[in-house]
DNA sequence: AAACTTTGCTAATTCGTTTTAGCATTTAGG
DNA sequence: CCTAAATGCTAAAACGAATTAGCAAAGTTT
């Protein structure tokens, strides 16, 4: 009673069953009955037998023959991060609409793993890839581009490498976030960011710098770099320093920094926004129950996801060599704590 | 200057270049040099040319020939849900360790989409699938099992269908969650759950019922069904009713219900746990800043993910017909609000 | 009735790989 | 020295589908 899987029926099996050549079966099953003038009688019999034997064409044979897989690879830096999880979801939807399947993987911000995953995906014959590059992945990405593999970088890009990318306009996001605090009357504004060379981080920092300069606050520019591997510890130190310097407002360069920051502020029993105003980044469900008003610079994740697929697939189809680089604007969202909903906010 | 992608070198191209038969190239590149006694001289030349021409074997040809794809399909109900995002991440890791690639997709709890996705995955020649079945997907799953496609259901199962599954021990989870409240001295305990026929929901409800009965609280059993499509509205109504009935404790059957519940309680300006004690489910990052102590029944997501892959792959490799059904125990986790960390908790 | 066209079908090739069977040539054994 | 075995290689088939070229038989023109 062991459930031996029976081999799937092939075109040859159908042909033998119907009593015709495999050619005819192929013609009929690909809707070319008229084009190759197959008689209705035979065509019907073929279709009937195909249904009865539950015929499903072999994807490998098809792809091998046609030289196309209709599959794209997507490697994000952490699929368990809601920001990327949402992007991945949208990518899948858009790809499917366009008749492509998407193969997903997560590099965990590890360049070796990224390189490894890419290799495996290319073995699976993906036609192109959407990649979130991580620190140290420059060579991997470069070889991808050199090998003419259609590539779209997501969320971050590598300035030296000429290839497609879609990301937030990080400079503008950093600028706008800072400007918002300035508009609210702040002058002593710090930024907390990771000590990473990734383009998105650099852009946000640059935006902060530019905004401060534009408003004549060059002397107030203070950037605290925290360590991603020891966020709690380095974050606490950074915030202690910021406060010691008399800062009353801070721009957090990522969502995780925002969470860390607010946690520590809570621990210090300081009030937001009275003691310190926080401008966060992204803003996930972590803040569903956060009980003070803060603002976030949020990214249009769906647009970012859609654009990346659009670019990749048009590249695949047109086989042209031009490059598309898109930086999409973020927007400031205000978080309204549940308790305040009934009160009047200023 | 258009970047025409050049066709990849095949084994034949290498053979021509080296001046030997394709057979030898294949032998060498598959590490069978000794087995088929290829001379070192020729082998070295082949390897050198392969490297120079950047030879990568064609995955389709290989899979077609070998009749195996080393790929599994994974369809969750919502990849943007952190619970599933984490599972997906772990599945990918484990699958890769075992030499398999995982193809992911998200059904959005839509049985048509699920069926569609499955069809496409099977065309891509996945060897087996891990599926989170959604409402109305019984027929789709049944046909999968009937067609002898190695299948593991995740998170939920379908009682009528004999197949592998891995899920939380939902009955025990519901039981333990309820029992915990009873131990704390509560007697008037309600449950809020979705009006769904999914096995996980039914299990949790059954557990709640059993616990109440076991502790002689049959008369206090009160189950409020809320509508997943109108969670806010039906949830508010449910909670109003619970409170009117004098309930001082509630078991929320899912994370989203827990969030809704706590939000509404906040809106009513009631205090947790003084006015009402909440036992949540799963407990995501939504509660990072929640400022009252609550408990959660949490799932061992990593174990669930790992087991599902283990089962699927052993099935694939042993080709045996037995069925494995695993229900893993959950655990109660206490959420300690950040503000209370410095105070003494009772 | 010869010269065509149309109809309905098949054989054979191709995609790139793996593997079996087998063919020379050299080396070893008695 | 002559058989037997080991060495180093190749041809060919197979996996399953798509497609081109082409072959009969029937039908249509002149």
Structural key phrases:
homodimer, 346 residues, six-stranded parallel β-sheet, 12 helices, elongated, disordered C terminus, DNA-binding
Briefly characterize the structure:
The structure is a homodimer of 346-residue chains. By secondary structure, chain A is an alpha/beta fold. Chain A has twelve helices and twelve strands.
Care to describe what's here?
- Two copies of one chain form a homodimer.
- In chain A, 45% of the residues are buried.
- Chain A has helices spanning 11-18, 22-29, 40-52, 59-66, 82-97, 111-123, 138-146, 170-183, 199-214, 231-244, 255-267, 301-318; strands at residues 71-76, 101-106, 128-131, 151-154, 164-168, 189-194, 222-226, 249-252, 277-281, 294-298, 325-328, 331-335.
- In chain A, strands 2-1-3-4-5-11 form a six-stranded parallel beta sheet, sandwiched between helices.
- The first copy, chain A, has twelve helices and twelve strands.
- The longest helix of chain A has 18 residues, at 301-318.
- Chain A is elongated and about 90 Å long.
- Chain A is α/β, with parallel strands linked by helices and 346 residues long.
- In chain A, strand 8, helix 11 and strand 9 form a beta-alpha-beta unit.
- At the A-B interface, helix 4, helix 5, strand 2, helix 6 and helix 11 of A face helix 4, helix 5, strand 2, helix 6 and helix 11 of B.
- The structure holds a DNA duplex (30 and 30 nucleotides).
């Amino acid at each position: 009673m062991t459930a031996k899987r029976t081999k799937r029926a092939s075109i040859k099996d159908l042909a033998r069953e119907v009593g015709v050549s495999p050619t005819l079966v192929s013609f009929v099953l690909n809707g070319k009955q008229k084009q190759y003038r197959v008689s209705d009688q035979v065509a019907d019999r073929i279709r009937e037998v195909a249904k009865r034997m539950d015929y499903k064409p072999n994807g490998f044979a098809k792809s091998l023959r046609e030289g196309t897989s209709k599959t794209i690879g997507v490697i994000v830096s952490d699929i368990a991060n809601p920001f990327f999880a949402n992007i991945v979801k949208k990518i899948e939807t858009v790809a499917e609409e366009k008749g492509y399947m998407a193969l997903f993987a997560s590099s965990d911000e590890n360049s070796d793993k990224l390189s490894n995953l890419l290799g495996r995906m290319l073995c699976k014959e993906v036609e192109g890839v959407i990649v979130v590059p991580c620190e140290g992945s420059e060579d991997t990405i470069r070889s991808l581009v050199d090998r003419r593999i259609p590539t779209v970088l997501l969320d971050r890009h590598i300035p030296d490498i000429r290839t497609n990318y879609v990301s937030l306009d990080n400079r503008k996001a950093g600028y706008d976030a800072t400007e918002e605090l300035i508009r609210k009357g702040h002058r002593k504004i710090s930024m907390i960011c990771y000590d990473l060379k990734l383009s998105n981080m650099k852009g946000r920092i640059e935006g902060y710098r530019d905004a401060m300069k534009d408003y004549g606050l060059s002397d107030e520019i203070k950037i605290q770099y925290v360590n991603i591997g020891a966020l709690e510890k380095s974050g606490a130190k950074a915030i202690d320093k910021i406060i010691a310097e008399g800062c009353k407002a801070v721009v957090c360069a990522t969502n995780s920094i925002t969470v860390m920051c607010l946690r520590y502020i809570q621990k210090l029993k300081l009030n937001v926004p009275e003691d310190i105003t926080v401008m966060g980044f992204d803003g996930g469900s972590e803040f569903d129950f956060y009980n003070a008003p803060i603002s976030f610079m949020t990214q249009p994740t769906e647009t970012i996801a859609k654009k990346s697929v659009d670019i990749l697939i048009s590249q695949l189809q047109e086989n042209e060599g031009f490059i598309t680089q898109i930086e999409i604007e973020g927007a400031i969202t205000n978080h309204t704590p549940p308790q305040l909903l009934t009160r009047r906010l200023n």
